[in-house]
Protein 1
Amino acid sequence: MWLNSKDGFSQINQLGQNRTPFLFIISYDKTKIFAQPLETLESDIFYKLQDWRNYPVKKRTEAFTFSKIPVDFPIYRNSMEKILEEIRSGNTYLLNLTFRTPIESSFTLKEIFTYARAKFKLYFKDEFICFSPEMFVETEGNTIATYPMKGTIDADIPDAEHRILNDEKEMAEHIMIVDLMRNDLGIIGINVKVEKFRYVDRIKAGKKELFQVSSKITATLPENWRDDLGTLLSSILPAGSITGTPKKSTVEIISDIENYERGFYTGVFGIFDGESLRSGVMIRFIEKENNRLFYKSGGGITLDSDATSEYEELIDKVYLPL
């Protein structure tokens, strides 16, 4: 079922060349890839990418329970200190630090997926789900667009939108990711443009609402981009918004500092409909392991980061948008 990196991207190239509509799922480290035509998609795989979906809408009618057991703050702070040492040494400027959090809910994975409100959702065989607010890339004609999301604040904080947009640390973090994604799109296209810079979306986060800051970057792809779809995706993965910058050294630091395997968390999934591509970053992610549920979340660390604030953001991102 899971293909290795070489075979997986080759399969995506083949499906693209044949203009076959298909679903793809790519792990964070690109070592596990799923690519299956939509017409033969297994019955226990469901997706939603904005208005593309393969399951009926169903509204929640019953109450549910949800609890979380976050990593202890001293453990988080210790990891963050290691990152700050790497930043001071010039090995990274921005690194997305993540942890996994044991959770419990009266709802099953399937129920959480079904009722969750999000633009990008995936349910895979009762193994994992994501309900992500973040697009990775989409195409329209020969134009590719990406929407890096970097910067989060509790919407209930007084003047929250003004605060997040005028926060120097958040501004610096966002600029670094926009610059990284501009460079990534420049690998596969030309005429790279930042079309919208730092706009705010309101996102339901359980009992809270969050403001999240994004930008829109576009580029022009070669006419034959559909024939090399796997190669194109491989060239720009993993996503810059969930790694950091510079990407290569930052990914190496992440593997040394994080105390677990990300797996499919912070990977990407998407649909090619035979003409266009639409994909999401697999954040807001829950996986099942030995009948226990684990939620994976994180945030960007820069030299100006405050450990308490970053720890609170990590916990805020562990929620069910029901």
Note: Residues 5-316 form a domain with the Anthranilate synthase fold (CATH 3.60.120.10).
Protein 2
Amino acid sequence: MHFTKKLGIGAVAAAMSLSMAQAAQAVDLQFFFPVAVGGKAADTIEELTKEYAAAHPDVKIDAVYAGSYQNTVTKALTAVRGGQAPQLSVILSVDMFTLIEEDAIVAFDDVIKSDEEKAWLKAFYPAFMENSQTGGKTYGIPFQRSTPVMYWNKDAFKKAGLDPNTPPATWAELVEFGKKLTVKDASGNVTQWGVRIPSSGFPYWLFQGLSTQNDVVLANGDGNKTNFSDPKVIEALQYLVDLSAKHKIMAPGIIEWGSTPKAFFEGESAIMWTSTGNLTNVRNNAPFDFGVAMLPANKRRGAPTGGGNFYIFKDSTDEQKAASLDFIKWITAPKQAAKWSIATGYVAPRADAWETPEMKAYVADFPPALVARDQLEFAVAELSTYQNQRITTIFNDGLEAAITGKASPEEAMNDAQQKADKILKDYR
């Protein structure tokens, strides 16, 4: 489904008064956005896009709700191959190398012209730009961006005799707290787990919290080499496995991503790791007082960035590329970025957005909104390589093998590294 931007009465009148020369320059843009129809994100995007269209009657934006991130990149690449590419889209930042390899997108460096635009390009948080740049060029502009954070149930902490305002700050404390927070009934069945770290949906992403905290990155910045078999990665995976198998503070087996917030709301887990993109959801639906914190540290603090970037597609006219750039500049500007962040919980991608009166009022009322932003200081690029979907599938399969006991962490990661090397050697 899609919605097409229609001009209001005032805008129509203004458009009719344009000269024939100006009217001939009207630009049509098709914009793929990764969300199902409806919901806060879709409503906010529609509102923002309408606002832009009203102020720019010479630009018509057809915003297509493209479903999940996976659906969006698939639809976009299918459209590219069929000669019907959109002009711009929000697609996962980790799909940058895939889009480059498909020759689908242009570098922003090749579209921007003025010194002002060059300065704009440098104003985004460096941690977000790690998944937006390669080879000295910028291919993506951060927008729907996030980091994983830790949420905890303050009521559960009180019942366990823990300070409700002090979350676990280290791996050792996560285990220590988790044991006190794991509750069993008279029959010995667990009624509340200490911690919940999802291992479906985006297992590599939450695992990157652990690998980063163990001071190792999963892939290089050129997207052609992985470090899956590094001893620090294996050690991090062993810790994850031990939360269930050894310490008994997390449910065994694969833990579902999608049901994690609901399990948290219903008291099935006292601590959960999930996206800051769930922040508004938790604020609106948690029936108890909760806290939000950076992920706990081991050798260092750390988390991956995540989420989607804006991309401009190569199969566009110069006028469409210029209009796409103008729209992206507008929607990522402080006021609009603040509005988007407040509505969804995603991290406003530029420091100046946090200086707006709206954002200052929001964080004064709801300080947890600052956690993901502050964690950017310790953040690294999300796992991203050429043949990214194949590589992440290999890695996710390795995580699953270790979590379900089909292989040891060492066996699983060595196997994943060998498979990744076979694919990526052609890109070195």
Note: Confidence is low (pLDDT under 50) at residues 1-24.
